[in-house]
């Protein structure tokens, strides 16, 4: 296989570990825990895995020789940089405990467990994938582990392979499934441990014990490099406004982090828009006013960052989408049978007055995108909505109106970008390479200590890796009850951007200056070799949250 110079050099990188994981390890139990909300309901649903203590690893003088153990691993959900290092850390961790331990990877996500599709991950396979991006070592999938039949089918193959523990690497939904599986196997006394690892580039799986999800650092650095390149082009050509949509359906962590790294003229934060009950017109007016103010100073160019899920956070749009979801669920076939040219008027005639007016105000293309096929949960597929084009088109209409009224004299031309897949499989930054390797190692230590229903945890992450604090957190501690598909279910609580948190406060204090001035910052590509302050830095979000 042909490899690039960087691939060859990166294969030799030895990820750094917290001091507590470098030698012999002992687990120290902390205080008992409870869920973040709905304690009685969660406790009732998870009698075997609720209330367990937070675990912290410390260096031990000596360790008892453990019997060999077989471990299974699953990559679940969307890709995130560093997944391969979680697996290599897990592999090295179990081999250190006993050289005869074996690791099995289930192919294409949780479906591989149910369908008994797996392969043994040997040293030569692991060595091919150290410090690389992507999930291609075993692939990933989005099968949800929710039904008893799935748990039992999984148990058949785990028993056959003599697997004692299963590590599920995924986001909030995947780790919720991991906890449900851990509870079931504990209740059945099957003797199978289940451990989770926090993955998602969206950054919405975090709390006091999980400071960041892996992949967020690398993805944001990847996007910020390209945003910086666009800003430089923008400042060079001085004739375009660039509307850049970024991944992040449920939260705006990526958009905010990229704004902190690159200082664009505008960054929209979905959580703020919802809190201020802003309408689509409010947002368009805000952007148009910034465009007009910069034009008055002779600057007919700028950059706008837009979170992918923005549309669902605009209260009026949320109501429109909810009504559309319900209507199309009941009348989808009837709608599909109507002549394409008449579909828009048909929808307008079927909606309530408020929603019909909003729908009628939307550009044709976006209105159509709102009626496209739903996802498996019956929801609109927001990633298919070209929010960046919706906003630029509506800003253009407003500016044309202002020009007629003599309020605006500039020129407005837009370029559009969506950065999504570009960041999900990038070669992990040193931070993610180290963090992921440590998470995998911590997962091995949790297994060795007989834990189940835990998520591997590494904290104090803005310090040098030596000083990181490794341990585990009961997954039930992160749960609350939420309505999914019409019924209440236990799920890990999503972490949204906190409007009173330090990262947003810093952004809020500087955005007026960034809007007016051309204060762009150009982060450049991820650096793997060189001074530690360039190569090992964590995200601006983490630095601000931990007051550095």
Layout of helices and strands, plus pairs?
Layout (H helix, E strand, L loop, with lengths): L4 H7 L7 H4 L1 E9 L6 H7 L7 E8 L9 E6 L7 H15 L4 E5 L3 H5 L3 E3 L2 H7 L18 H13 L2 E8 L1 H16 L5 E6 L17 H22 L3 E6 L6 H10 L3 E2 L2 H6 L4 H17 L5 E6 L2 H4 L1 H23 L2 H11 L2 H9 L2 H6 L17 H18 L9 E6 L1 H4 L5 H19 L5 E6 L9 E6 L4 E6 L2 E6 L9 H15 L15 H4 L4 H6 L3
Parallel strand pairs: 3-4, 3-6, 6-7, 7-12, 8-10, 8-11, 9-10
Antiparallel strand pairs: 1-2, 2-13, 4-5, 12-13, 14-15
Helix pairs in contact: 4-6, 4-20, 9-10, 10-21, 12-18, 14-16, 15-16
How would you portray this structure in words?
It is a single chain. This protein is an alpha/beta fold and 548 residues long. It has helices at 5-11, 19-22, 39-45, 83-97, 110-114, 123-129, 148-160, 172-187, 216-237, 253-262, 270-275, 280-296, 310-313, 315-337, 340-350, 353-361, 364-369, 387-404, 421-424, 430-448, 502-516, 532-535, 540-545, and strands spanning 24-32, 53-60, 70-75, 102-106, 118-120, 163-170, 193-198, 241-246, 266-267, 302-307, 414-419, 454-459, 469-474, 479-484, 487-492. The longest helix is centred in the middle third of the chain and has 23 residues, at 315-337. The mean pLDDT is 95. The radius of gyration is 25 Å and the shape is globular. α12 packs across α18 (387-404), α14 (315-337) crosses α16 (353-361) and α15 runs antiparallel to α16 (353-361). The chain contains 23 helices and 15 strands.
